[in-house]
Description:
Elements lengths: L9 E6 L3 H12 L4 E7 L2 H11 L3 E4 L2 E2 L2 E2 H8 L6 H7 L8 H4 L2 H14 L9
Parallel strand pairs: 1-2, 1-3
Antiparallel strand pairs: 4-5
Helix pairs in contact: 2-3
Amino acid sequence: MAPMNTPENIAVFVVDDKPSMRARLRELLGDIDGVEVVGDAGSIDDATAGILRTHPDCVLLDYQIEGGTGVDVLRAVCPQSDQHRRACLNAGARFFLDKSSEFGFIRTAIAEIDRRRTHPGPGKTTA
C-alpha cells in the first residue's frame, strides 16, 4: 500500500505512460527535500484509483496516457471541464507544464505548491 501524505511532506503522484519517464520523475522528486512520491501510474484507470486512494498534494500528469488523456483523469478525480493547457487548468489542475520543454519547472511548481499549502491566502485554510 502506498504511504499517505504527511503534513511535513508534499505528497506527489506521478502519471506517465512511459515507465522510464515515471522512473526519471521519481528520481528527480526523490532529490527534493520535503517531497514524498506516494504512487505512480501509466493508465487512466490506475491513475484515477491511485490519486483517489492517496489524496496527493500534487499530481504530475502526462497529457497522453494509456486509455485516453490526462484531462480524462482530471475529470474523474476533480469533475469539471476543456484544450491542452486550458483544458487541464479548467479541469482542476493548478499547474500545467510540457515535460519536453518545461521539465526544469517541476522544482518551481513543487515549491509553489508547498508555499500555497503552508501559507494560504486570507480567508483560506490548508485543509
